[in-house]
Amino acid sequence: DLQYSIDETPPFYLCVLLGLQHYLTMFGATLSIPLLVAPAMCVGNDIIATAEMLGTILFVSGFITIIQATFDYVIDLCRLPIIQGGTFAYLVPTFAILNLPTFKCPGHANETDSADVTAFRTEVWQIRMREIQGAIIASSVFQVAIGLSGVIGFVLKFIGPLSIAPTITLVGLSLFRAAAYNAGQNWWIAALTIFLIALFSLYLRNVSIPCCAIKNRRCGCGPYKLFQLFPVLLAILISWAVCHIITVTDVIKKEDTGHWGYNARTDVKMNVLAKAQWFRFPYPGTLINTSHEYSSCICLPGQWGMPTFSVASVFGMLA
């Protein structure tokens, strides 16, 4: 039932489309992490800060994926065709840390009136970001030590699928509220996308569409199982096309922000493109405000400053 065996290489144009589909498949899961964490970090209405988080996780995910695939190919290790993305396993301890009294959001963290308030709000969420960064760094060191020691082989004798599956299930269930909230912004579009993915991947997977393609350096036309190869890509394109038609025809008025289906418009967040940087390199080193009046700065390691470490956060992340 495979279109290509493990030793075959699809044509370059097909690799591009399959790569795009793979990207779109992991796109939602990867970007959902900063979108879920941002409110708990007191980002508030700062769309620039949210854009920086989204851009950072995409950049790092792509960078680590290239390193993993390239080095595995050069030194002939596992060579797994996977994308290195964010993990939901850290979300639960992250929320637990951010719910500590020390990191409760101040009452005026969401105000956006003056430059002083904006600078204060920026420092508020960056303090929390540095704390989470430090906790993840420290817990990662423990993971490296455990992996090098060989203890994990002994522990796996007592940890099987029956103990891991409930843990993964509980992590997924804890994120249901956020998933339902985002899908609930327009249930019709969300349901359409889910329906199309299920339709293409389960019921139309064996339906062939006449197409022209290049295989084994030969060009020819014949039946092609498009739905089997591109179920996610086709579903997203169709759903986006429906949203674009709604926007162009002005079925839902742009001024009617209170309409239940307003988020189906494709121009809802166009202001982000105007305000956020189109090209931004998350460099290790940035200007951090040091005075209460936010008038003096020093340069510290890290995109958002030097990571901070505390016993409570580290052990919370280890759990």
From TrEMBL:
Main subcellular location: membrane
Keywords associated with the record: Membrane, Transmembrane, Transmembrane helix
Subcellular compartments: Membrane
TM region positions: 20-41, 53-71, 135-156, 187-205, 226-247
A GO cellular-component term linked to this record: membrane
Membrane is among the record's keywords: yes
Record membrane topology: Multi-pass membrane protein
The keyword Signal belongs to this UniProt entry's keyword annotation: no
Pfam families in alphabetical order: Xan_ur_permease
GO molecular function, one term: transmembrane transporter activity
Family stated for the protein in its record: Belongs to the nucleobase:cation symporter-2 (NCS2) (TC 2.A.40) family.
Descriptive protein name: Solute carrier family 23 member 2
Organism: Capitella teleta (Polychaete worm)
